[in-house]
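In this section we walk through a basic example: taking a raw amino acid sequence and producing a predicted 3D structure, encoded as discrete structure tokens. The instruction is simple. Fold the sequence below.
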Amino acid sequence: MSVITITKDNFKSEVLQSEKPVLLDFWAEWCPPCRMQSPIVDEIAEERPDIKVGKVNTDEQPELSAAFEVENIPTLIVFKEGKPANVLVGMRTKEQLLDLFL
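The resulting token sequence is shown next.
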């Protein structure tokens, strides 16, 4: 499954109403750690069809960033049953991210 671009317009249907757990990556184009995190997030999307993976561009979606108090990026939030279950700030390994779904 590929990564979904999450916006304020599709957030409810793609994240809050998702039957699968969701990994959201809050990032920005100008952020070097975000660019390092991105391939890891992409791998998870391709390898784990049981997890929905989305990316939120913080420059384009300031409302979503504010709603989840994202002050530093990358910030990764796991949603389960439509609610934030885990928040990680900063670059993480694939294993650290997958451990959130155990």
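Looking at the output, two observations stand out. The chain is about 35% helix and 25% strand. The chain has a mean pLDDT of 96. In the next section we compare this with other chains.
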